[in-house]
Specification:
By secondary structure, this protein is mainly alpha-helical. Among the domains are: 70 residues; 36 residues, no CATH class. The chain is 36% helix and 6% strand. It has 6 helices and 4 strands, in the order αααββααβαβ. Strand 1 and strand 2 form a beta hairpin. The longest helix has 18 residues. The radius of gyration is 21 Å and the shape is elongated.
Length: 170
């Protein structure tokens, strides 16, 4: 479908640690990461917490008031789930049966909701408010095609610091 739209797509599934290296060059412009990943501990709690809590606003779920539980209704089964309490139980549980049941419930709810997060993100603006901070040369009002400005903010800053391009002036 993307090729029909005019994109020259070469789909390459990658580990989360590799995708940023791949996207840090000017040759590649689009990367997709699928929510629900468990990049740190590989637990069901981490995956579902990423979907229903950490990235809730990105998936179009309403923002909750402090202390409010996320209650969701499965559109297929009409079953009501208290997602906040389920996440808490899943995090704290040491019982394999309970973990399995909660994981299956989350899988069913997530499948039936069919949440979608549209994100196209290559980079974001870098603005430094401290005028005494030196940065590598850049051209104002132009997309920077410089080695230092490619990648996520942490990678860009690390490259600048390593090469002595980011420092305070007097």
């Amino acid at each position: 479908m993307l090729k029909e739209f005019g994109f020259d797509v070469n789909f390459k599934p990658m580990d989360g640690g590799v995708i940023w290296k791949y996207l840090n060059s000017s040759d590649f412009m689009i990367g997709c990461s699928f929510l629900g990943g468990s990049s740190a501990y590989n637990t069901p709690w981490e995956a579902f917490n990423n979907i229903y809590s950490s990235s809730a606003a990105r998936t179009g779920l309403p923002v909750l008031k402090e202390g409010e539980d996320r209650i969701m209704k499965d559109p297929v089964t009409n079953k009501e789930y208290n997602v906040t309490q389920m996440l808490l139980k899943l995090f704290n549980s040491t019982d394999d049966k309970e973990i399995k049941q909660l994981t299956e419930d989350f899988m069913t709810l997530t499948n039936d909701l069919c949440l979608y997060m549209p994100v196209i993100e290559k980079a974001s603006c870098l603005r430094i408010y401290d005028q005494t901070l030196s940065l590598p040369e850049g051209i104002p009002d132009k997309i920077q095609k410089d080695y230092y400005y490619f990648g996520d903010i942490n990678t860009a800053l690390a490259k600048m610091i390593k090469d002595g391009q980011l420092y305070f002036t007097e």
